[in-house]
Structures are given as C-alpha cells and as structure tokens.
Design brief:
The protein has helices spanning about 15-35, 40-45, 55-70, 85-95, 100-105, 110-120, 130-135, 135-145, 160-175, 215-225, 245-250, 255-265, 270-300, 300-330, and strands at about 5-10, 35-40, 75-80, 150-155, 185. The chain is mainly alpha-helical. The protein has a three-stranded parallel beta sheet with strand order 1-2-3. Bound molecules: tryptophan. Tryptophan (TRP) binds next to β1, α8 and β4.
Length: about 325
C-alpha cells in the first residue's frame, strides 16, 4: 500500500520561484508515489492574519490555481481547505493538554517567528497571541487527522514535526496506541535566492519572482536584478557567481548556460543582453504554467469543485481518525 504524505501551505500570497523550486515541484513528483494530501492551511494563515480575513479568503483560490498550474493533479493528490475540517480543530483542543507552554515557547520555529514579529512591530511580545504560540499543536492535528506518515518539509519546519511526534507519543502513552508518529521527508531542494541577492526569496523581502507574474512584470524585475557590482562597462569581464541573472539562468536550466558563463567571464556579454535573454527564457519557463493558470482563471467553478471534492474526501479520513481518538479518550458518547 502507498504511504500517506501530508503537507500544508498557508494561503497568504501567490507562489514564487522559491516555493516552486523549494517545495511544490517536489510535491508534483511525490503525488505519483504516495497517497498525498495537500492542505490549504487557512486557519494557520489566520493565526497571524486574523485581522485580514479578505487576504486569506482571496489567497485560498489563488494558491489553489498556482498549485494546479504547476501540475498538482486532483486525481492524484487530495487538495483541501483546513477550515472546512472541524475535526482538526477538535484534535487541536485535545492535544493542547499534552504540550506545555514552556515547550511551545522553546520551539525554535515559533521562537524565530516571535522574534521577527517583535522586530517588525517593535513591541515586547505582548501582542503574541495564544493562537500563534499554539500553532504547532494545530499543525500536529493537521498531520495526525490524516494519519500522515511522511511530511515533505523544508529545514525550517523540522521543529514542528518534532513537536508533533512528541504529542503523538504522549497521546499513545496515555490513551493507547491510536496515532501515527510522522517522519519528515526532507527534500534536498535548495533555498532560492532573491532578485537582490538575498539568500532567501520571500514575499516580505520584496525580491520574489511569482509564477503568476506577467511578461511586463518579469521584464521589470529581471532588469532590476543584482549583477556583479565590479562590472561597470558592457565589456568588462565579470564573475557569474556574483550575479543573480546567471543564477536564474542556471535555475531554470537555460540550455545555453555554458555560453552565458564563458561570455560573462570573458567580458563579451553585456548585462543588458544577458538580462534580455533571461527574460525570454523565463517567459518560456512560465509559459505552460501561465496557460494552465489562464484556464483555471476562466473556469473558477472547476477550482471550487476540486476544493470541494478534495475537502469531502479529506473529511472522511479525519472523521474516522476522530472516532478512534474519542474512543481512546473515553469521550465517545
Ligand atoms: N507551517 C507550514 C509552513 O508555514 C504549513 C503547514 C500547515 C504544514 N500545516 C502543515 C506543513 C502540515 C506540513 C504539515 O510552511
């Protein structure tokens, strides 16, 4: 029997190249080998966007279209909306007894995120909510509701998987063997750098190329990409490894990459020409994704149907789990 994988993504914006090469490209591959669940984690998105429900609502469909456009196949993977599975919320409440506040505050991912919030909002952490600190508990519910065995995640999510494993062990110890302890499925995907040369491409960093960007936007962004600052004149030799344009040529597999590299080093290639070539290549790369996006934008009812059917299927699984959980906890009236 195929193993079950479960992963989730917060609907707070469109997918960019960082998400694609870092995660979703891999999910497309995994859907052939595993029984796959992909959760649109709108409840988790609300933990730090509770005052902006419109944003989360809009991005549920946007993100679903992005996922379908890169090749997630609803006949292979179950795409569902977290908020529509009340069993996840129930499990979250039950699990909240199995984890201490101290342990949550020690969770490295939560810790980093709280530190970032403090830096952004400049407060002493007074505004950090119960829901936010507790989101690893809710994520443990996401995973266990579907008996997820393998969780495809990046490094930053490892502490959340560990926290889930602890909750599962404690649950099984106290109430009897009921839940499955998940394991992370770490991909060797690289972290994708931003247009400005930052180690991370990110929405909040303003350095991202989105899969949904149109030709005009792509052109503007690539023209602004950081190149080797030592190269001043068009025919100065430069170091491609210090250039984001070269980096993206490589990332999207430009078949002409060796020429790009050697001409850059020799100084026989100007940055403007090199950027223009990348713009063309990027548009080629995005073409099939854009075509699919256009189709789904014109057929919103199909997107809704995919989410509805996926959610029904996911709910059946969660209902069966919660039955076992309630029986184990002696609350099965
Ligand atoms: N926390 C994950 C992220 O920010 C998203 C997520 C929600 C998730 N539920 C999940 C990941 C369950 C793996 C399993 O990327």
């Amino acid at each position: 029997m195929k193993k079950t994988i479960l992963t989730g993504i917060r609907p707070t914006g469109n997918l960019h190249l960082g998400h694609y090469f870092g995660a979703t490209k891999n999910w497309v591959k995994l859907q052939d080998e595993y029984n796959s669940y992909i959760e649109i984690a709108d409840v988790q998105a609300l933990t730090d966007n509770f005052n902006n429900p419109e944003k989360v609502r809009k991005n549920v469909r946007e993100l679903t279209i992005d996922l379908l456009s890169v090749g997630i196949d609803p006949n292979k993977a179950t795409l569902f909306i977290q908020s529509q599975i009340p069993e996840i919320a129930e499990l979250t409440v039950f699990y909240s007894n199995l984890v201490t506040m101290a342990r949550l505050y020690r969770n490295p991912t939560v810790k980093t995120e709280i530190a970032q919030k403090k830096a952004i909002f400049g407060n002493d952490g007074e505004s950090v909510t119960y829901g936010f600190v507790g989101y690893p508990v809710s994520q443990a519910a996401d995973i266990t509701a579907f008996k997820g065995e393998l969780i495809p995640v990046g490094e930053d999510q490892l502490p959340l998987i560990e926290q889930c494993r602890e909750i599962v062990r404690k649950f099984n110890n106290i109430y009897g063997n009921t839940l499955i302890e998940p394991e992370p499925l770490l991909s060797d995907n690289p972290r994708i750098k931003g247009l400005d040369g930052n180690e991370k491409m990110g929405k909040s960093l303003g350095n991202a190329i989105y899969l949904a960007d149109n030709e005009e936007v792509i052109s503007k962004k690539i023209m602004s990409a950081v190149t080797d600052t030592k190269k001043i004149k068009k025919d100065d030799p430069a170091d491609p490894d210090k250039c984001m344009v070269y980096y993206y040529h490589k990332l999207i597999d430009n078949p002409n990459i060796d020429t790009v590299c050697s001409e850059c080093k020799k100084g026989s290639r100007g940055c403007v020409a090199c950027k223009k070539e990348l713009i063309n290549q990027m548009n080629e790369f995005l073409k099939p994704i854009r075509e699919k996006r256009k189709y789904y934008e014109e057929h919103p009812e199909e997107v809704d149907k995919i989410l509805k059917e996926g959610t029904i299927k996911a709910k059946e699984k969660a209902e069966s789990t919660i039955k076992e959980v309630k029986s184990a906890m002696m609350i099965d009236y």
